[in-house]
């Protein structure tokens, strides 16, 4: 019993040191990626309901500590504010990153 307790204690210390050494960022990033993936389903449903956004998709991203990525092509820059408003209305639980292009130009 003492040996099992000692092994458990050493394991807890190792995990604690790993979390402290990485700033907990890896764990938070994984959590945010999962949240973004679940939310992407909701955003994709909204995008599918709007014909002008048929070439736009949402997914999870590893950037920004785990984010919601919205990517694709638009026909004009005038659509971009409407796309951002649609995404905002879904109340994303994580940072939203846009990888959207009009022609050869990337919009932010």
Q: Considering DSSP H and I runs of 4 or more, what fraction of the residues is helical?
A: 40-55%
Kindly report how far apart the N and C termini lie: 58 Å
CATH topology grouping: Histidine-containing Protein, Chain: A
User: Can you count the beta strands?
Assistant: 4
CATH C-level label: Alpha Beta
H-E string: HHEEHEE
Number of individual domains: 1
Overall outline: elongated
Task: Report the C-alpha radius of gyration, rounded.
Answer: 20 Å
Q: Which CATH architecture would you pick?
A: 2-Layer Sandwich
Largest sheet: 4 strands, mixed
Low-confidence stretches: none
Structural class by sheet pairing and helices? alpha+beta
Identify the strand order in the major beta sheet.
1-2-3-4
- Mean pLDDT equals 88
Number of continuous helical runs: 3
Strand percentage, roughly? 15-25%
